[in-house]
Amino acid sequence: MPTEPADEMAEANDAVQPAEAAASQNNAAAAAAAPRQIKMDLYAPPVFEGRSTGDAFSFLEYVERYAALKQMTDGEKLHFIAILLRDAASDFYEGLATTQLES
What we know:
The chain is mainly α. The protein has helices at 5-33, 56-69, 74-84, 87-95, 98-101. The protein has 5 helices and no strands.
C-alpha cells in the first residue's frame, strides 16, 4: 500500500528531531566546557591610574564587590584587576613577581 505524503512528512520530522536534540546537547556541552566570559557592563569598576589623588582602597573594595557579583574566582579577579590598571598602577603591577601577586 503506498504511503500518503502526510505520513512521509511525519516520518521525516521524527528523524530530524533526534538530530536536533543531539545538536542542542552538543552545543550545551561545548558552552559548559568553554572558559567563562566576563562581560563588562555599566557597573564595572573604573580604571585605576595610581595617581596620588586616587583612592586605591576604594578601588579595591569596589573591585571586590563587583567580583563577588560576577562570581569571579581569585584568578579571574587578578586578570580583571590587571585590565583596569593604567599608567603608574599598571607599571607597578607588572613589576611584581608572580609570588607577590598570589599573596
